[in-house]
Amino acid sequence: MGRLNTPHLIEAAVWFAIVAIFFGYTFEFNQPIEIYKFGATGWPRVVVLLLLLATAGNLYYQYVHGSAVQPGRVGVAESDDSEADYSNRSMQIKMLAVLLTPFIFAWLLKPVGIYFGAPFFIAAVIWLFGERRWRSIWTTTLVIYFIFLIMFVVLLNAPLPQGNMSPFYDYSGWILKINTNIQNLW
Predict the structure, then answer these.
(1) CA torsion through residues 133, 134, 135, 136, sign
(2) Under a CB-based contact definition with an 8 Å cutoff, are residues 98 and 129 in contact?
(3) Does the pLDDT value for residue 82 go beyond 90?
(4) How far apart, in whole angstroms, are the C-alpha atoms of residue 125 and residue 122?
(5) Of 31, 50, 69, 72, which sees the most CB atoms within 10 A?
(6) Domain boundaries, the chain
């Protein structure tokens, strides 16, 4: 069994059970939708499939590496005595900014829309988490944004907030027009 132990197997069994239960529930609302060729269960089943892949990947990783602390792993400290110091004013401001950014993004969804606002939100989060190289920020932002567009707009054809202010709404319309042209190619 490689480096798997009982807690690894229990964790995997729980996640596989959650996947099976959620997949079973998708048959409760399996109905065709006029504007979406995959039906009402298309998007939920994609999420369930991603959860299944993540669970299988985690199980494989634990099979190969076990629970040993990997050197250089993000979020793993060498010793337990390192505590975050939240008394520093700049740390408090940074933490507040990280916590408020999703709320600001959600508040701006109605006027700006997700198509225009998402790249700025992604870049802001990357910057707030400490990346300062602008080339890396924008490269990562564009990759995530295009994956987001391909998943939600092209593959899932999910209706997303378009915004209601003129330049943002026009940009959203342009993205949706490109999507329509892509969909017509299939």
Answers:
(1) positive
(2) yes
(3) no
(4) 5
(5) 50
(6) 1-69, 88-186
Q: Is the pTM of this model over 0.70?
A: no
Q: How far is residue 23's CA from residue 37's CA, in Å, rounded to a whole number?
A: 19
The phi and psi torsions of 73 (rounded to 5 degrees) equal -75, 135
Q: For the chain, report the end-to-end CA distance as a whole number of angstroms.
A: 45
Contact 113, 176 (CB under 8 A): no
Q: Are the CB atoms for 59 and 12 separated by under 8 Å? A: yes
- DSSP code per residue over 65-103: HTTPPPTT-TT--SSTT----TTSHHHHHHHHHHHHHHH
Is residue 112 classed exposed, middle or buried when 0-12, 13-18 and 19+ CB atoms within 10 A define those classes?
Answer: buried
For residue range 100-142, what is the model confidence (pLDDT) as tens digits? Answer: 999 999 998 889 988 899 999 999 999 998 889 999 999 999 9
Cβ neighbours around 15 below 10 Å, total:
17
Q: What percent of the chain shows pLDDT beyond 90?
A: 29
